[in-house]
Amino acid sequence: MTSSMAYLLGDGRNPQTLGFTLRQLGLHEAALGAFERAAALSPRDPEVWANLGLVQSHLGRGQAAVDSFYKGIELYPRFVGAYAALGKHHQVSSHTRSAPTEEPCL
């Protein structure tokens, strides 16, 4: 690995930063592993879940992506980025999470 590549990828201590960089470089399989590690280390970070969902969506893992986006939303309901990523995912794929079935409020 060249020194410039090592600089871009960081020293590996922050898997979310590594995952983001790998995703930007188009290395989605490698980014998936980094974000999975980030989710294991920081399971209450909604940004980690949104980034994991983006990579899963890109790799065609639709239901896993939806679940990750919803996890981010559950952790921080005002996290607009997770809603935007979920909407984009639904726009470009046929995967959907079924809506809860309940009686409408009148």
Task: Please give a structural write-up.
This protein has 106 residues and is an all-alpha fold. The protein has a single domain (14-92), classed as Tetratricopeptide repeat domain (Serine Threonine Protein Phosphatase 5, Tetratricopeptide repeat). It is built from 6 helices and no strands. The protein has helices at 3-9, 15-24, 28-41, 46-58, 62-75, 80-92. The longest helix is centred in the first third of the chain and has 14 residues, at 28-41. The termini are far apart. 30% of the residues are buried.
Write a brief caption for the model.
This protein has 106 residues and is mostly helical. The protein has six helices and no strands.
SSE diagram, text form:
Layout (H helix, E strand, L loop, with lengths): L2 H7 L5 H10 L3 H14 L4 H13 L3 H14 L4 H13 L14
Helix pairs in contact: 2-3, 3-4, 4-5, 4-6, 5-6
The CATH topology is Serine Threonine Protein Phosphatase 5, Tetratricopeptide repeat
Instruction: Work out the strand percent.
Output: under 5%
Rg for CA atoms: 15 Å
Please summarize the sheet with the most strands: none
> What is the C-level CATH assignment?
Mainly Alpha
> Domains counted in the coordinates: how many?
1
Discrete helix count:
6
Fraction of residues in H or I helices:
55-70%
If classified by CATH, what would the architecture be? Alpha Horseshoe
Mean pLDDT: 83
- Strand/helix succession: HHHHHH
- Helix/strand class: mainly alpha
Return residue spans where pLDDT drops below 50 for at least 5 consecutive residues. Answer: 99-106
Q: Give the name of the CATH superfamily.
A: Tetratricopeptide repeat domain
Number of separate strands: 0
